[in-house]
Write a structure and sequence with these properties.
Layout: E1 2-4, E2 11-12, E3 17-19, E4 25-29, E5 37-41, E6 43-44, E7 47-48, E8 64-68, E9 76-82, E10 85-95, E11 114-116, E12 123-127, E13 131-137, E14 145-152, H1 160-181
Parallel strand pairs: 3-5
Antiparallel strand pairs: 1-4, 2-3, 4-5, 6-7, 8-9, 9-10, 10-14, 11-12, 12-13, 13-14
């Protein structure tokens, strides 16, 4: 039998519970052999995301924690840890110039790198088996460009095609949200 502890503003999403009190244990489980579930955050590393966008990249576990700096004003990173293991890393770099994700400087970060096409935002992107880089134009009151690197633990979603699709969805949603939060134009 399961006993759910509902956080203020939390929503049940099927596999996990989400809510603003994110990154805390949200479901207490009674009985032997049943898995505990944590709250999937409505914000990841400072950026609000729709339900389910990040859940696909997070493993089952008991505790979810965020470490690092959410949406920093300079180069920095933020990680989501599940039961103390790294599940997802976001590295945020506001820059003056465009960093080409398909350029030689980025090649080391990818396994089977491919250009991201048809981006729903102004910029360029690259996607690998467990990583992605999106370099988005910013302007407005924000920096010239935002370059955001993403790394997902490949053991969470073992099917490479599904992991790549989930990582692309997360990277684009996160970058769109980061552009808004950073004050980017359009």
């Amino acid at each position: 039998m399961r006993t759910a502890v509902r956080l203020r503003g939390a929503r049940r999403t099927g596999r996990v519970t989400s809510g603003p009190a994110a990154l805390t244990l949200a479901v207490a489980v009674a009985g032997c052999g049943e898995k505990q579930e944590y709250a999937v955050p409505e914000k990841v590393c400072g950026v609000p995301l729709e339900e389910g966008t990040v859940a696909l990249l997070l493993p089952e576990g008991e505790h979810l924690a965020e470490r690092g700096t959410p949406l920093p004003a300079h180069h920095d990173y933020c990680r989501l840890l599940v039961d103390r293991g790294r599940a997802l890393t976001v590295t945020f770099s506001p820059t003056r110039t465009l960093h080409d994700p398909m350029g030689d400087r980025s090649a080391y970060a990818f396994t089977r790198r491919a250009e991201m096409r048809d981006l729903p935002l102004p910029g360029e992107g690259a996607l690998g088996d467990d990583s992605a880089v999106v370099a988005a134009r910013c302007g407005g009151s924000g920096p010239g460009y935002l370059t955001i690197d993403f790394y997902a633990d490949k053991d969470v979603v073992r099917d490479t095609a599904r992991r790549r699709a989930a990582l692309r969805e997360f990277a684009l949603a996160y970058t769109s949200g980061a552009r808004k939060k950073a004050g980017c134009a359009g």
